[in-house]
Amino acid sequence: MSSRRPYVLLSCAMSIDGYLDDTTTTRLLLSNDADFDRVNAVRAGCDAILVGATTIRKDNPRLLVRSQARRDARTARGLPASPTKVTMTGHGDLDPDAQFFRAGDTEKIVYCATPGWDKAQRRLAGVATVVDAGDPADPRRVVEDLASRGITRLMVEGGGSIHTQFLTAGLADELHLVIAPFFVGDLKAPRFVSDGAFPWNPGNHAQLVETRRFGDVVLLPLRLLPPARPGMTDQQDLDRQWLQAAIDLSRRCPVVETAYAVGAVIVDRHGHEVSRGFSRETDSHVHAEESALAKLAATGVDLTGATIYTSLEPCSVRKSRPHPCAVLIITAGITRVVLALREPPLFVTCHGVELLHTAGVEVIEIPELADQVRTINAHLPGIGG
Question: In terms of pLDDT, which residue wins out, 224 or 68?
């Protein structure tokens, strides 16, 4: 995962033979209420949702978080009730009265190929931000621009052309694939992906995290790992990717002069993200690791063998809470901590790494990412890089 783009999760429901729909005028139902609720929960945890222009024209989706409780939870964290809505178009031929634009108060962004940019600007004035995405529209430019807007977690919901573009460009980190128990059997129907050169092939397998059943459909969550770089093990590559995600998340922290900006991501023993948090996410004193762990308190998630990736060393001294983050990590049963930078002795002398080591927790430092953490905290005296 590049430092210049969000974590990208692709979501798709398809038939056994790989179709997204049939050729009738009625939308083909490939999922059920239980799975729709799961998708809604995933949406609520993302910063932005992207669909293609064809999906907007054909399905007229609202792309909002449906659950009031989930909307309330987002607004309590200072976020809009629903994620930013994003689309890509080659010609700018979009209806400004579509629900994509009219439903909800969240931001809407349209990435348009250069030849259609002027038309899109005129048609969508007042309802969306229109961005030149190159000719043809380049998903790499899309994700880099989204990162510059503070988007750290992007959910891509299709359709097939969009899935193909993101996958062949190597821009996906995770795939949630739902299989419906029937065939479509019509070559004229739209498929999950079209032909292309995919990074995940016989020489570089995607990793199946688990299988989950929702009624008569099954979910296959897959981690899409890039090919290992020469001289680096798969685990080292993974650690760098997840730590980079934590660093990127720290950019969302409200800036204060008395505390660090830190991001944290928790990954279970199967390599699947289970939570994330950042400093001051829910209140003015909450730490990144604390926030990520608090979201799991009532879920029963087993953290045995889990790893927490944190941009800065977990604290060992705490004035605003009864327990420092290093103790919270130990108590949760997390067995690995990966960090970029030891905490400088600006406010306190931190011994988080020592506490973790004493408790038998493996601690890995990746100092080549530390300069990013220093730059993000450049508002603090003697920290900035």
Answer: 68
